[in-house]
Amino acid sequence: MKISTKGRYALRLMLDIAMHDTIEPVRLKDTAERQNISVKYLEQIISALVRAGYVKSIRGPQGGYRLMKKPTEYTVGMILRQVEGNMVPVSCLEDEAVDCERQEQCVTLRIWKELDVAMRSVLDKYTLADLMGWQQEITP
Amino acid sequence: MKISTKGRYALRLMLDIAMHDTIEPVRLKDTAERQNISVKYLEQIISALVRAGYVKSIRGPQGGYRLMKKPTEYTVGMILRQVEGNMVPVSCLEDEAVDCERQEQCVTLRIWKELDVAMRSVLDKYTLADLMGWQQEITP
DNA sequence: TTATTTCATATTGACATACTAGGAAAAAGG
DNA sequence: CCTTTTTCCTAGTATGTCAATATGAAATAA
Question: Integer distance in angstroms from CA A136 to C1' D16?
């Protein structure tokens, strides 16, 4: 019941890009240094975010990555779901789940559903913009 | 980010014992049949619950298991924590966590903390007694 | 043409998950 | 005492996931 490094790093990566979005796109090399994560691992993580259309890449020298939307438009949940998969607490709640025959009588399912709602309510409440604000409070 | 079968089965196991608590203790053989889980796997799961003092075992013929407390005294979270471990969403929040040097500047930690609170609020709100009530509504 | 960047795919080692297997220990009933 | 039924304990095993590293190709700015 843990969020993987991929998910946690993805959030820090997106925040790092958002915080350093100037005329120049953000290079993974720089993010890697600032966040203390290997470039190679970041490459893997960001590929999912590129595929999702969350960031756009510019190749070659002076290349890098840039956000496609405003920081207010990325919730934490959106980012996690791209790299972690669906983020539901039990597979019974997955869209592709074959519904099991005991589902109607399954009282534990009520718990999992409510847990799912509670998790979403947190993860979809905050956006990158919120994280940016907090970050600026700490390191002005 | 999934609850394992062990956690889910543990909850069904405890509910099954609670629902069939009569003069006779509940045998795993019967639970296994009702819940469609192997006796061997249930044995493993229940050992953690015995160790925690949640159920008491009676060996030999006419043996089985019995709850140590009233169903109202077991929250879902308590049961899950025994078999799944601490149930916090990131290891930074574990009691034994070596606190990382970036903790003070870590804005993502705020998210994880709030996620943890939200999860607890659901998992510690419901007890076995609630589950029993729901079950009885469905199959009177 | 070279250096710098992203892009794509494969490989690795460690660990976790979801079980099954085999037998020992306890105890009730005859 | 003996047999059967139950829990108890340890080990094994197949599969998968995690957390990376490694290798090299493709694009592009200067």
Answer: 41
Please judge whether A11 and B84 are an interchain contact, meaning their C-beta atoms are less than 8 angstroms apart: no
Report the run of H or E that residue B66 belongs to, with start and end. strand B64-67
Q: Are A1 and B89 in contact (CB under 8 A)?
A: yes
- Partner B contacted by A129 (CB < 8 A): no
Exposure b/e, A82-98, CB count within 10 A at least 16 = b? bbbebbbbbbbbeeeee
List the pLDDT tens digit at each of the 140 positions of chain A: 999 999 999 999 999 999 999 999 999 999 999 999 999 999 999 999 999 999 999 999 999 999 999 999 999 999 999 999 999 999 999 987 666 777 778 999 999 999 999 999 999 999 999 999 999 999 87
Structural contact between residues A90 and A108, judged by C-beta atoms closer than 8 angstroms:
no
Domains along the sequence of chain A with CATH: 5-85+127-138 (1.10.10.10)
Of the candidates B107, B114, B99, the one whose C-alpha atom is nearest the C-alpha of residue A16 is B107
Q: Which residues of A touch B119 (CB under 8 A)?
A: 115, 118-119
Is B47 (CB) below 7 Å from strand C?
no
